[in-house]
Amino acid sequence: MNFSRTNLTILAATVITTLVVIYYSRQSGDQTIVNVQLPADLSAAAIAGRDIFERQCMACHGKNAGGTKNGPPLVHIIYESGHHGDPLFHRAVRYGVKAHHWPYGNMPKLDGVSSGDVTKILAYVRELQRANGIN
Ligand code: HEC
After folding, report:
1. Which 3 state secondary structure label does DSSP give 69?
2. Which atom of ligand 1 is nearest to the CA of 108?
3. What is the spatial distance between Cα 38 and Cα 131, in angstroms, rounded to a whole number?
4. Is the pLDDT of residue 82 over 50?
5. Ligand 1 pocket: which of 68, 98, 107, 126 to mutate (most atoms <8 Å of CB)?
6. Which domains does the chain have, with CATH numbers?
7. 63 pocket-lining for ligand 1 (C-beta < 6 Å)
């Protein structure tokens, strides 16, 4: 059989399309996108942060910050502290975020979340990130 370049290109395109469709179909419902490893234990600040996170952020950012179809995982290399430092989290909550990294749309500003709350949420998210090799 003469397996031409065109055939190979079509085959590759089909495989890629299938993988993309599988990837996105797995994101339906409130299923998280990233399988987050939990640390053995959390600091007191992180536990306080987890409670606030679960009330204010989890609907979009998912259980254990693993992401949903409404918002990205925060336990993700994009949000490592060196690239997305703590001030960015404060800004995101105070002013909202215009979609730029992901296809989920904008994040609204959250008036009910104080900067003290964000500091606790950060303790939680950073401990989760570290447990997943993101520093
Ligand atoms: C209504 C859904 C929604 C809620 C609730 C929400 N977010 Fe977001 N958030 C998003 C989306 C969508 C993005 C991604 C925007 C992009 O980069 O495309 C995002 C991005 C972010 C970013 C990255 C900002 C940047 O500039 O790249 C941070 C940090 C963040 N969210 C923190 C939080 C925290 C903390 C909470 C809870 C206090 C929260 N979010 C609640 C939807 C949400």
Report:
1. coil
2. 1
3. 6
4. yes
5. 107
6. 30-131 (1.10.760.10)
7. no
Q: Distance (Å, rounded) from C-alpha 88 to C-alpha 79?
A: 10
Under a CB-based contact definition with an 8 Å cutoff, are residues 131 and 67 in contact? no
- The values of phi and psi at residue 55, to 5°, are -80, -40
pTM, whole model, 2 decimals? 0.82
| Confidence category of residue 84, pLDDT binned at 50, 70, 90 | confident
Question: What is the tens place of the pLDDT at every residue in 56-81?
Answer: 999 999 999 999 999 999 999 999 99
Q: Is the CB of 119 under 6 A from ligand 1?
A: no
Query: Letter for the amino acid at 120?
Result: K
CA distance 79 to 56: 18
Q: What percent of the chain has pLDDT over 70?
A: 85
Ligand 1 and 108: CB distance under 6 A:
yes
